[in-house]
Design brief:
Elements (H helix, E strand, L loop, with lengths): L1 H12 L5 E4 L4 E4 L11 H5 L19
Antiparallel strand pairs: 1-2
Length: 65
């Protein structure tokens, strides 16, 4: 999603043209806007895959064989 947003923004940067047409009682204008990365809410999608940082200790459990 992030790569697609960057590609969308890059493609539209080269052709920032406002199109506008008017018919009898109908007007049409097509304007585009850049996709904001913060609006994608990627954190909600990645929460299940985030690994918490280790606390820096090692616990060894040994048992008698």
């Amino acid at each position: 999603m992030l790569a697609e947003a960057y590609a969308h923004n890059a493609a539209l940067t080269s052709s920032k043209v406002l199109k506008s047409e008017t018919f009898d009682d109908y007007s049409y204008s097509a304007d585009h806007s850049d996709i904001e990365v913060t609006d994608l809410d990627l954190a909600a999608l990645l929460d299940d895959y985030v690994v918490t940082a280790a606390n820096g200790t090692v616990t060894m459990r040994m048992r008698v064989l």
